[in-house]
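Replying to the earlier thread about multi-chain prediction with a worked example.

Input:
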Amino acid sequence: MSKLNSNDIAHLAGVSRSTVSRVINGYANVPEETRERVMKVIHENHYYPLISGRLLSGKSTKTLGLFWIGQPQLASDSLVSNYFMHIIDAAAQRGYLVLSSVIDNLTDKANVNHVRRIFMEGRIDAGIFVGENNNEPLVEELSSLGMTLGLFDYYHENEDVPGRITVNFERDSGEKAIDYLYSLGHRRIALIDGDFSRISCVHRHESYMRGFMKHNLPVQNKWIAAGGIVSQGGYEAAKRMLSACMDDLPTAICANNDAAAFGVYKACRELGLSIPGQISIIGHDGHERGLFTEPPLTTLAFDFRAMFASLVDRVVDTLEKKENVPQSVFLPSTLVERASCRRIDA
Amino acid sequence: MSKLNSNDIAHLAGVSRSTVSRVINGYANVPEETRERVMKVIHENHYYPLISGRLLSGKSTKTLGLFWIGQPQLASDSLVSNYFMHIIDAAAQRGYLVLSSVIDNLTDKANVNHVRRIFMEGRIDAGIFVGENNNEPLVEELSSLGMTLGLFDYYHENEDVPGRITVNFERDSGEKAIDYLYSLGHRRIALIDGDFSRISCVHRHESYMRGFMKHNLPVQNKWIAAGGIVSQGGYEAAKRMLSACMDDLPTAICANNDAAAFGVYKACRELGLSIPGQISIIGHDGHERGLFTEPPLTTLAFDFRAMFASLVDRVVDTLEKKENVPQSVFLPSTLVERASCRRIDA
DNA sequence: CTGAAAGCGCTTACAG
DNA sequence: CTGAAAGCGCTTACAG
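Result:
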């Protein structure tokens, strides 16, 4: 017995394909008795309509594309790979499947074509982007083609581009870090900044600056270094920065994110600086590994599960033509106090 | 200008749809001049054939299903979520996309139907399973329906079921752990076993036993506990086991995997047992976090990237009707010596 | 080398 | 309430 199609089911149930289709799609105008008879045949034969037919006759794919843009380093970072789970989970809640691609970068034309192809071939109803640069041309292109897009950490002045859904880190978390360190008595605060092609890193830097301003703290260029968003970059930046000012050290360092903070730990260890004895460190993200470092890392944590749920839900709401779907959402950070920052006498 | 179809392209290029299709599918019998003319029109218009049409006319989806079965705890384990990246990467190398699902368990009928549906609807050419129990009925069912399946950590006596591709952990790694500890002088070795619904955990236990046998070490029931494969389980098992034999402690513990070993660390810390001073610990996997624990964890590491590449490659080879594709492959472990095992005087 | 035509498996106006 | 028919966008024997 080869695979049955809707015709076979129709014959077995003594109806036409039209009626089989109506039953499958839950149309109201089918009498209960007929519906049950057809359903019975469907179940008995493990019949599922092929999507190829459904798609061609205009049904949607019920599939979201997930485009993970980023360096291999990022991919091996345990925090970010959890994103996958969150997105797949959130999509499944809404009855959507997830078709995933990992893309090194979008400067390579072949990669851009790969993403474009997935949209144009009609494999997905919408796409979620994670790790893309702000103002990524491909994103703008797809947007202008009318695609529904879910963008993580993407910010655009013109927020009301139709079909463009974003989720972002709150913009004041840097200031919160400064507030916290200030309250512990710190006045000499250094910054390991992130990668300014990511809008969150720009916002975070600006937010730190507002914190400095608010508390009347001096902005010292020698205490500011760009480290990127992975551990190695944080390490290099901290090593460089600290080595250059061993005679005039800061008492605290704000790392753009936890991965970078782990690099800062390593730099401090190599320079013989104790944490938090000589240097307090605060990160951003809420990376699981921060629980296990020595000392455990104090950080401004984000609820990534909630962030992705928000993103996916609003993308699906948009696909389903809901009204008044918020296009732009910022999620707040929470201070998680562990042991990497100490109170000092100012 | 709404979306073009192959007819539009044909008109623009002054040929028939047949020829457009021949060009797209790389048929040999199209003169170079025609091919170029058609290609030009295709590129100029960013034309991509819709998969709906292609599928219906018999083309394959070029998509692999990925079914991730497992507890939420596992999902948040940083090691395993990296699996995603490996699988997506390996598939992309071969021109395949990956449609992913995360499934709590396969005892729930709705979950089973969800998986079955993805196969039956013709969304995928083959499915990869990770985290499923050995002899999972759904796997057997899909197999008997003629589906091509890639199974991670799945072992079946009857290895030659067509279309069933497996990759497994080498079966002797437990013995290697015992050999290593023995060479350091350990004679009193405890076991924190895994979850015996996973075949690798069964094999590993048997392998430890062979190691005990080989070196003539006594098998002490009080030094053997089942801990599962996540950190919490390892913690509980070790706590229980060690508390019960504080007057007659082992000198070393083999943890079924690194996650469980991290739990064993915690138990030792709570019981005031120093690592490796009083207890040496060895894990399995090569979990990144083991680099950062205090002390760094000695372990038998597996190359997960290679494991998944092997699995995906052989699945694709099977789909592409290659000859003599090995159905079952075991990948070796490598001893990664860090600082959690010490030499003792026997 | 190439076009006209059939066919893939659905869904959905349309007509009754 | 329901069936016959058209149509979705491709690919591929078939015929020339």
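Chain B touches chain A through 41 residues (CB under 8 Å).

Feel free to reuse this layout for your own posts.
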